[in-house]
Every structure is written in C-alpha cells, then in structure tokens.
Amino acid sequence: MKIITFGEVMLRLAPAGYGRIVQTDSFNVTLAGAEANVAVDLANMGMDTVYVTKLPENEVGQLVVNGIRKYGVDTSMIVRGGERTGTFYLEKGASQRGSKVIYDRKYSAIAMADGSEFDWERIFSGADWFHLSGITPALGENVAQICIDACKEAKKQGVKISCDLNYRKNLWDRDTCNRVMKEICKYVDVCIANEEDAYDVFGVSADDSDIEGGVLSAEGYKKVADRLMDMFPFEKVAITLRESISASVNNWSAVLCDKDAMYSSRKYTINIVDRVGGGDSFAAGLIYSLTNGYDNQKAIEFATAASCLKHTIEGDFNLISVKEAEDLMNGSGNGRVKR
Known about the structure:
Blueprint: E1 2-6, E2 10-14, E3 28-32, H1 34-44, E4 48-52, E5 54-55, H2 59-69, E6 79-80, E7 87-91, E8 100-104, H3 120-123, E9 129-133, H4 141-156, E10 160-164, H5 174-184, E11 190-193, H6 197-202, H7 218-231, E12 236-244, E13 249-257, E14 262-264, E15 268-271, H8 278-291, H9 296-310, H10 322-329
Parallel strand pairs: 1-4, 1-9, 2-7, 5-6, 9-10, 10-11, 11-12
Antiparallel strand pairs: 2-3, 7-8, 12-13, 13-14, 13-15
Helix pairs in contact: 1-8, 8-9, 9-10
C-alpha cells in the first residue's frame, strides 16, 4: 500500500518540560504538522508513505526534509522554493493550566505555493490512499484550491481519500471553512473528527455531551456521524472522544461508524506526557488498520490504542511499533518494564 499525505510541516519550538514561553531562554526544536505526523507515524508502522509539501531551498528547509526522511518517509515529491519555513511555539499545559500554541507561519513556502508546482497525476501514480486535513486548506485560498485539485486527481485515479476535519480558529473563520470543506468533502471516503470539529466545520453537534465538563456521549456522536454521512459520500466516519479531566489527565476513546453500525473502542485514562499530535496518530492508526484488512471493531481499537500511546511520547511523531499498539489493544497496558 502506498499512502500520500499533503500539508505543511513546521518547526515546533517549545520550552523544556512544562516551562512557560515568557520564562524560557531556550527552545527545544522538533518537527510537526498534521499530515507530516501521519506520514511519519505510518512509516514507523512499516507503510510506504510519501509526504508532499513545499519548503525553502535553504538549510532550514533541508533540516526539515532530513528530519522526515530519517523515519523512512519518501520526500522525493517535496517542492523546493519560497522564503519561509513555518514555525509554532508550544507551551505544554499541566493540571488546570491548558497548553497553548502560537503560530508563526504566515507567508510560509507552502502558504504561498501555486497549484502548477504540484504534478498530482505523477504524485498519485501507483498510490492507494491520500490523507489531508482541514488545516492545510486553511492556509489560504490558493492552498485550498491545491487541496481540491489533489482530491479530484486522487479520485480520478481510484485513490481512497481520508480527511481529518481539524478546525483551527486561528487560521480561518467558520464561514470560509464551511465553504471550502464542503467542496473537499465531496471527494472524501473516510472522515475523521474530534468531539468539536463536526460542529465547528458543519454545525452538527452531539446530544447529551458537555465538552467543557468532560462528559461525552458515544451515542450522541453516532447521530453526528449519521448526519455527516447524509451530507457527504463518506463510507466511514471516525470521531475521537477526549474527556479532559485536566491538562494532565484525559480519558481517551473513539467511535467508528458506517451506514450500518457504530463501533466503540475501549476507553483509556492517560497521564499525558505530550498530547500534540494525538489526533494525527489516531488518523495514522486508522489508515493502517483499514489498509491492512482489519474489521471495523479491530480498526477502531487499534487506532485508539496507537493514539493512546502517542500521548506518552515527547514530540508530535508517534514513535511506536504495530506490536506495541496491538499489545495495548489486547489488554497489556500496565506499564511494567519489558525485559
């Protein structure tokens, strides 16, 4: 299976540990970006992944290429040019203090890209799956059109498409998001969302859920999934359910729905090391399981277990093996030393 992902990869700058941005005099630098995270996560699971983006032809751009390629991701389709590599600052939350992200990505190479720079017919040659998120088209009308063009070509070549709705209020407003994502979702086979995205993007909310209070109803999200499948030609809808007890402790589970039924995962209580990239690790786990013939119940269990483990790993990338996720989904989650 050959999987293509497309989006922006950035430098993630974070104070050590739980330090605040205003108190630090140095930052740890790692790589991050929704679709890059998915590509790396899948490569770590042994999948053939190709990451597509645009990066400057300079040492910083090469740092990013090298940082993705070292995990086995094919970077040969990355376009080089432009002036900037996007960055963001991350302040990790703890207890009752939530995490904070500050973007510095305006005028980045990918945000200024032109559609003519991407040969989608060539990129999708021999591909089986294409993944993107709602973050990428939010970078500008030009990038939104590139995403639409990519989806059209992927569909033309018979490539399955997954999309994580991933609404980011700091990048665009709800009206623009709704207009663009309606067009993209015409081509999507598997829709992925969290407990808030369906409402933020399409105005569809779950009954009997209190997101701020950390109480979520799986049955309510089955109705959300059904509504989304009525609106678009989705074959499946997956929704992650994060019950935030605090910034340090979350309950984590998910549901996968098709036209006939809902499949619910086990619920995990996680003492969080780093939650950024958690949703992307779920998307990667779901893509892995669906492309490897897992049935719906096993697929949602695997994706949820894989993303649970990501919350225990520093950085955006989910550096786990398939066996580790399978061990957890099969009940080995006591954290004992493995000798």
